[in-house]
Amino acid sequence: MSPATPTPTLTGNRGLHIEEPLIFEQGHPDKCGVDLPEPADKPDRLGGLARSGPIGLPGLSEPEVVRHYTRLSQKNYAIDSGFYPLGSCTMKHNPRLNERLARLPGFADLHPFQPEATVQGALAVMHRLSAWLLGLTGMEAVALSPGAGAHGELCGMQAIRAALDARGDDGRRVVLVPDSAHGTNPATAALCGFRVRGIPGDARGRVDLAAFKAALDDGVAGVMLTNPNTCGLFETDILALSEAVHAAGAYFYLDGANFNAIVGRVKIADLGVDAMHINLHKTFSTPHGGGGPGAGPTVLSPALAPFAPLPYVVHDGAGYRLVEHVEGNARPFGRMKGFHGQFGVFVRALAYIMSMGRDGLHRASGDAVLNANYLLARLGEALTPSFEGPCMHEALFDDRFLKGTGVSTLDFAKAMLDEGFHPMTMYFPLVVHGAMLMEPTETESRDSLDAFCDAVLALAAKAKAGDAAFFTHAPRHTPRRRLDETRAARHPVLRWEPPAPTRAAE
Amino acid sequence: MRYLPLTDDDRRAMLARIGAASVDDLFRDVPPAALSDATPGGGFDALPDHATEMAVERDLAALAARNTTAGSVPSFLGAGAYRHHVPAAVDHLIQRGEFLTAYTPYQPEVSQGTLQYLYEFQTQVALITGMEVANASMYDAATGVAEAAAMACRVTRRKRVLLSGRLHPHYRAATETFLRYTDIETEALDPDPMAVEDLIGRVNPGTACVVVQNPDFFGRLSDLAALADACHAEGALLIVAVAEPVSLGLVTPPGAMGADIVVAEGHAIGSPLNFGGPGVGLFATRKKFVRHMPGRLAGETVDEDGRRGWVLTLSTREQHIRREKATSNICTNSGLIALAWTIHMTLLGEAGFTKLARLNHMKAVELVEHLETVPNLKVVTPTFFNEVLVRLPGHGAAAIVETLAEKGLLAGVPLSRFYPTYPELADGLLVCATETTESADMAALAAALTEALR
Amino acid sequence: MSTLYFTEDHEWISVDGDTATVGITDYAQQQLGDVVFVEVPEAGKVLTKGDEAAVVESVKAASEVYAPVSGTVTEGNADLADAPAAVNEDPMGEGWFFKLTLADAGELDDLMDPAAYESFVKGLE
C-alpha cells in the first residue's frame, strides 16, 4: 500500500503550512517597520564618500515582518517540537531559564570595552564558568574564547604546536587521527601545519592499539581522539593509548564532542589528556540556534596551560581582571576571536551547570547512556547494530538490515520525517556502511523513546516487506518533499535577483 | 531535577529491557581508574549540587547587578562594538523554539524556515556590501577576516598577506593567530593614526591580499578605489573589513570601491552588546570566487513536486567531506545571530536602514561639535561615520576614562587598551555616537572632559 | 589510432602518439553520483605521475584526479565548467578532463588495458 499524494489545495497552502514568499517579493520601498527620529540637517563629514543610488532592500511593516518569520519558523523541526536523535550533536532540551538570564540588562547591555570596575559581575561569570569546567575535567587551565567546537579544536592543536615550538622540537609534524574521526579533526590538524596519519579501527569499533603504537614515532606531534568515540563506544584502551602518546613525546588532544556521556563521572585529566574542547551548545544545553552560535572552551593540561590564548580572567585581591596582553610567564599563542568570546553563551551554560550541579550532571550522563542503550536494545531486534554494547550516549546501526530491500539509509531517514521524527545522523561515522547514529540525550522521556522505537520498528518491517516505493518517494507530508541538490550545486542560485524587466528599467 | 524526565521506575524497567544491573553497569567499558565518581571521597566533591530555578536566578541576577549597563549612563563606547536600539519584535521572533532549538538545516524538507531566512540574509548582505554573493555567516568579523585572508591565498595561489595598521587590533590578532602555523606569511603595519599608510607601495606580485578596514579602527573613512586598482594590477585581492555595519546605509560600499572580499561584524544590527559576543560575521565576495569561500551557503532549488525550496549547497568545500583539504575547519555559522540581523534589517528596510545610518552620522557630527569646545582636546579624524579619534595631549586617556566612569559616564575606549606598548598612543581616545546618544549626553561628556583636562 | 589504458583510480587514458586524453571511467562516475563541478588543469602545467591534476565533485563527495602518467598539459576541458553533467552522461567522450603530452611513454606499461580493467572492476563488486 502506497499512500496517495494529498489532494492539492487551491492556494498551495496546507492548513498550518502556509506558502511564504521572500521578503523581496512582498516588500515596498515606502513601508518601514521602525519609526526613527529625524536626523539633524548638518553638513556631512563623509569626505565625498556618500552612497549613491538605492540599495534594493525591501521594506515591510512590523506586522508583516512578524508574520513572515512566524510562518518561516513553522517550517522547521526543532527539539521544542519533537525528538531529535542526531548522533554526535547532543540535541538536548534548552532550558528557558538560560535565555531569561542571558537577557538580563546587566549581562546583555554591557560593552566589551567598559572599564573593568564596571563589569565585575560579567568577569565573575567567566571566572565561575571556568572554575566549573576545570572542576569537571580536572584540567589546569581553560581558554573560553573559541567560538565553537571546531574553533576549540584549533585552539587545542595550536597550543600543542606552540608547546612543540617552545621546546624547539620542529621535527614533529604528524598527527594521528582515527578513521572514525569527525571531519573537523583532519581539517584542524592541516591548519596547524600538521600532516594527518590515519589510524584504523579494530573489529570492536575501537582504535587498534597495536596499529596505534606502531604509528607512534618521533615525528608525531600529537593524536586527536574522540572518546567516547564516534561509534558511541568508550575507548577501553584509553589509558594505554595516552601513556603511549606521552612516552613517544607527543600530546593528546581529546575531541570533546561526546563529553555528555561522561560528564560528572570521568575527569578528563585522569585520561592523560593535554587538551579538550567542550561544546557548551551540546553538553551544557545552550541552543543550537539553527547552526550557531555555540562556544568551544578548551581545557588544557599543565604542559599546555602556559600557551593558552588571550584573553582570560584572573581573580586577585582587588577583584576580577581581564588579561588582554601578554603578562607574567604566560606565553599565549595568540588571540582566536574578537572581544572576549561568546559571553551570552557563557551565561546560559553557567545557568544550566548551576541548575544541574554535581549530582544532576552525574545523573544526566547516566540517563543519556541509559536512553541510548535502551534504543540499542529495542531497535537491535530489527536493525543491525554495528558493534556489541553497552554503548555510551549514542547507538550506532548500519544498513545491513536494509540489504536487498531497495531502501537506503537516506530513504529510511526521509520516511522517518513523515512519521514526525527528525532522523538520526546518517553516513557518519564513515567506518560502517550506511551508518545510522542515534543520540537520544537524557532529556527524552521513556514514552518519547518508545514512540520513536515503535515507529522505527514499523518502518523496518515495511522495508523488509518489500515496499520500497514508500521510502524512495518519502517524505510526502513535510513542508517540502525531497529537494534537488544536484540542480542547486550545478547552477548555484545563492541570492535573490530582481526579475529581469525591473532590472532593465533601472 | 527538572530537566530529567526519567523516573526510577522508568530506569528499572529500561535496565531490565537492556539486561543491565544498574546505570553504573553501563559504564563498565570505562577503566575503573578513570571513574572519578566511584572513587571514595569522590572526585567532584568540591562542586555544589543542583539548584532550583529560583536560586539560580537570584544568584546570577546578583552578578548582573554588579555591572554598570551601557544603557544606564551616557556611553560613547565603540571600537568595534556599537550600541543600537533593537526593535522588540527581533528578540521575540528569535526566541521561537522552531528557530532557537533547531540544528543546522541538514534535513531541508523540515528546515525550510532556516534555509529561507539564510537565503534572504545572504541577499541582504550582498546588497549592502555591494558584492555578488554572501555566505550564511561566520563566527564574527575577526575570524571572518582571518578566513578571508586564507581564502585570498587559495584564490591567488600566493602566500603573502598584508594587514593595514588601521585594522581593528582584534581582527589583526585573530588573523595572525589563525595563519600562524600555516605556510602563509603575514605582514602587519604599525598602528599610526596620523600618518597616511603606503599600502599601494607595498603590493607586489607575491601579495595575495591587502586587508583594510573602512571606516578604519581610528574612525576614518577612505576611498579605496585606488588601492583596489593597485591590488588588481598586481593580481592581489583587496579585503575590506567593516566593523560598524550601519555605516553601509550611508557610505559607498566596499564592493563599489573594488573590494574582492568584504567581511563585516553584524553584531551591531539585531543583537544587544552582550559584552562583545556572540557576534555574526558577514562575508561576501565575487561570484567567481564562490567555490573558494568558507562557510555554509543556502541555495535555491525545487522539490520533487517542482515547488521552490532551499538547501545547503556547495558543501563539498566543507570539512565533513573534504576533511584535511577543506576550505576551513569551521562547521557552525552564527545562525541565530544571523536571524536577528536579518529580522532587524527587514524591519528597517531601505528607508529605515538609510535613515538610521544618516541619524548615526548626524549624531557623530553633533558630538564632534561638542568635543571641539573642549580645551586641550583634538579631534583628529577628518572624515568619519559615527566614531572619531580624539587626542588628549599630556593626559593618559585610560586614566581619564576611569575618572569619568566613576562619575557615571562611559567616555570612550582608550587606545592604550589595545596598544600598551605604544606610549605615543596613550593620549588617544575613541569616541562614538549612535542613534541612542542624546544631545544632553554629549554636553555632559564635553563638560566632564573639560573639567578632567583642566 | 588511439590506445586505451586504465588506472586503479578509475581514470582512462587514450593515447595517440605522444598525446594523451584523460578522464574518469563510467564506474567512477556511477560511484560519485551526479557530478556538479570539475576543476581541470590549465594548459602548460607540468604534471608528474601521481600529482593531483583535477578535482571532481558530486553533491556529497569530492575526489582528486591524479595524473596517471607524467607530461605537460596541453588543454583542460573548459566545457565542463558549465556542463559538468557531461561526466555522467558521456564519461569516455565529452566528459574528458584534460589532454597532455607524454613525458615518458614507458609509464604506460604500468597501466591496465580494457580487459584487465574490466576484470578489476568486477573484482570490486
TrEMBL record, chain A:
Broad class of enzyme this protein falls into: oxidoreductase
GO cellular component, one term: glycine cleavage complex
Domain Aminotransferase class V: 159-289
Region (Disordered): 479-506
UniProt entry keywords in alphabetical sequence: Oxidoreductase, Pyridoxal phosphate
An example Gene Ontology molecular-function term: glycine dehydrogenase (decarboxylating) activity
EC number(s) stated in the UniProt entry for this protein: 1.4.4.2
Catalytic activity: N(6)-[(R)-lipoyl]-L-lysyl-[glycine-cleavage complex H protein] + glycine + H(+) = N(6)-[(R)-S(8)-aminomethyldihydrolipoyl]-L-lysyl-[glycine-cleavage complex H protein] + CO2
One GO biological process term: glycine decarboxylation via glycine cleavage system
All residue ranges annotated as the Glycine dehydrogenase C-terminal domain in the record: 365-463
Listed InterPro entries: Aminotrans_V_dom, GDC-P_C, GDC_P, PyrdxlP-dep_Trfase, PyrdxlP-dep_Trfase_major, PyrdxlP-dep_Trfase_small
Described function: The glycine cleavage system catalyzes the degradation of glycine. The P protein binds the alpha-amino group of glycine through its pyridoxal phosphate cofactor; CO(2) is released and the remaining methylamine moiety is then transferred to the lipoamide cofactor of the H protein.
Protein name, as recorded: glycine dehydrogenase (aminomethyl-transferring)
Lineage: Bacteria, Pseudomonadati, Pseudomonadota, Alphaproteobacteria, Rhodospirillales
Automatic annotation (TrEMBL), chain B:
Methyltransferase is among the record's keywords: no
GO molecular function per UniProt: glycine dehydrogenase (decarboxylating) activity
Domain Glycine cleavage system P-protein N-terminal as annotated: residue spans: 1-447
GO BP: glycine decarboxylation via glycine cleavage system; nucleoside metabolic process
Catalyses which reaction(s): N(6)-[(R)-lipoyl]-L-lysyl-[glycine-cleavage complex H protein] + glycine + H(+) = N(6)-[(R)-S(8)-aminomethyldihydrolipoyl]-L-lysyl-[glycine-cleavage complex H protein] + CO2
EC number, UniProt record: 1.4.4.2
Main EC class the enzyme belongs to: oxidoreductase
Alphabetical keyword list: Oxidoreductase
InterPro entries with a match to the protein in the record: GcvPA (IPR023010), GDC-P_N (IPR049315), PyrdxlP-dep_Trfase (IPR015424), PyrdxlP-dep_Trfase_major (IPR015421), PyrdxlP-dep_Trfase_small (IPR015422)
Membrane-spanning residues: none
Function: The glycine cleavage system catalyzes the degradation of glycine. The P protein binds the alpha-amino group of glycine through its pyridoxal phosphate cofactor; CO(2) is released and the remaining methylamine moiety is then transferred to the lipoamide cofactor of the H protein.
Quaternary structure and interacting proteins, as annotated: The glycine cleavage system is composed of four proteins: P, T, L and H. In this organism, the P 'protein' is a heterodimer of two subunits.
Family note: Belongs to the GcvP family. N-terminal subunit subfamily.
HAMAP family, per the entry: GcvPA (MF_00712)
Protein name per its UniProtKB record: Probable glycine dehydrogenase (decarboxylating) subunit 1
Organism this protein belongs to: Roseospira goensis
Organism taxonomic ancestry: Bacteria, Pseudomonadati, Pseudomonadota, Alphaproteobacteria, Rhodospirillales
The gene coding this protein: gcvPA
Automatic annotation (TrEMBL), chain C:
GO biological process: glycine decarboxylation via glycine cleavage system; protein lipoylation
Gene3D superfamilies the record matches: 2.40.50.100
Note on how the cofactor is bound: Binds 1 lipoyl cofactor covalently.
PROSITE patterns, sorted: BIOTINYL_LIPOYL, LIPOYL
Location of the Lipoyl-binding domain: 19-101
Gene Ontology cellular-component annotations: cytosol; glycine cleavage complex
CDD domains: GCS_H
Pfam assignment, any one: GCV_H
General function of this protein: The glycine cleavage system catalyzes the degradation of glycine. The H protein shuttles the methylamine group of glycine from the P protein to the T protein.
Designated name of the protein: Glycine cleavage system H protein
UniProt source species: Roseospira goensis
Name of the gene: gcvH
